[in-house]
UniProtKB/TrEMBL annotation:
Signal keyword on record: yes
Assigned keywords, A-Z: Signal
UniProt biased composition (Polar residues): 23-39
Source organism of this protein record: Streptomyces actuosus
Family matches, as PROSITE patterns: PROKAR_LIPOPROTEIN
Region (Disordered): 23-47
Signal peptide location: 1-19
Protein name as annotated: Lipoprotein
Superkingdom of the source species: Bacteria
Length: 179
């Protein structure tokens, strides 16, 4: 009865040793390779490149011509101090919308959602939805801070309340193109 237990334990140790040997990265070419695993014989797919806020903006601006990139947020200039923090966005961009009259926007500072919007990308769809829910709850009683929020997978598109509902719907339709 002890031999099968020992054999199973030996198999687990051998498998662990085999997988540990291949865990280093190739400094010259860190691109995923389409290889076959030794244990299952099933081809592995290359890892998909993570979507960034800049990638999402390219899609959005291709559908909403009035959107123009105004900034890429970094850890050093993130006004919310959320970039890269646990359960928060991993990338963020801000944009303007030429249909908004800048002189009518209260507190029109560069990067303000009021001037157009922002795109925030999260690790999970649940984190993106949680951020949208939080923003909606906080701004519910403050019409001057309200905004349109559209979640598409891991992407949150925040759009200025200075746009009409019909204009904001352009962003909602563009969000659907993110898949």
């Amino acid at each position: 009865m002890r031999k099968p237990a020992l054999s199973a334990a030996a198999l687990v140790i051998a498998f662990a040793a085999m997988t540990a040997c291949g865990s280093g990265s190739d400094q010259k070419n860190d691109q995923p390779k389409n290889t076959t695993t030794a244990t299952a014989g099933v081809p592995t797919k290359p890892a998909a490149r993570e979507l960034t806020a800049s990638d999402a903006f390219k899609v959005i601006s291709g559908k909403v011509a009035s959107a123009k990139l105004s900034g890429v947020v970094t850890e050093d200039d993130d006004p919310n101090h959320l970039l890269g923090r646990p359960n928060q966005y991993t990338s963020k961009v801000t944009f303007t919308d030429s249909r908004i009259k800048v002189d009518e926007v209260a507190g029109a500072e560069p990067g303000s959602v009021g001037l157009g919007g922002a795109i925030e990308v999260f690790t999970t769809a649940a984190d993106a939805q949680a951020r949208a829910d939080y923003i909606q709850n906080v701004t519910k009683g403050m019409p001057m801070l309200s905004e349109y929020d559209f979640v598409s997978g891991t992407v949150l598109i925040r759009v200025s309340h200075y746009l009409t509902p019909a204009q904001a719907a352009d962003y909602k339709a563009a969000a659907a193109a993110l898949g």
